[in-house]
Amino acid sequence: MQLIDIHTHSAKTDGNIHIADVGTNVIYSTLCSVGIHPWKISAGWKRDFDRITGIAANGSVAAIGECGFDLLKSPATEEEQYRIFLLHAKLSESLQKPLIIHLVKGQQLLLKAAKEFHHTQAWIIHGFRGKARQAQQLLSAGMHISLGEHFNADTAAIIPAERLFIESDESTMPLLDIYARIATARGCNVEELAKHIKANALGCNLLKRGY
Fold first, then answer.
1. pLDDT one-digit tens code per residue, 121-167
2. Does residue 209 sit within a domain?
């Protein structure tokens, strides 16, 4: 059984499919995502974004991001984060690739963006640890939610199967163990969960047919 990890910061060779976040760096030979993390917004962000734009159409790039909002650690203002996020969203739309979103204390900004920018590509909140009520707000706004090693069990139980993804992010826990914990919280088995995640990845263009 091959599992899908939609967001990781480390190279893994465990036989599963991993999408590596490479930021603004060179493309790996594996599937990856490219974007400006809100922690790494600098005075030279326009140059960084031009670099992303130049490589994002490459077939190895499965998604745009992670990008988004962090009102605790980003050096950028809320206005700058919002502007840069919308540029990533437009790139996602133009290439028909999903958007991987970092979200810390910026939910209202994200909901504002979702209301003003009518996206057709999947917007995926990565590494979500919030409560079920917060998740429901995001789901109602059309988001997808990705869970990792640390998650709220009540939240895991209420996410519709077609809106759920799983990731390892920076965890050293085996991906199978992460799947197993989430499956337990949802009251299903790993095989069933893996089937849903793969269908979602194909449906959102994270994976191409043949994987």
1. 999 999 999 999 999 999 999 999 999 999 999 999 999 999 999 99
2. no
Q: Which residue has the tokens 């799947």?
A: 179
The b/e string for 28-50 (b: 16+ C-beta within 10 A; e otherwise) is eebbbbbbbbbeebeeebeebbe
| Domains of the chain: total | 1
Nearest by Cα to 1 from 15, 19, 13: 15
Domain CATH number, residue 14: 3.20.20.140
210 within a domain of the structure (yes/no): no
Chain segment 50-86, per-residue pLDDT in tens: 999 999 999 999 999 999 999 999 999 999 999 999 9
Q: Are 105 and 71 in contact (CB under 8 A)?
A: yes
Q: Looking at the domain assignment, is residue 211 inside a domain? A: no
Answer whether residue 208 is part of any domain.
no
Read off the pTM: 0.96
Is the peptide bond preceding residue 66 cis, with omega within 30 degrees of 0?
yes
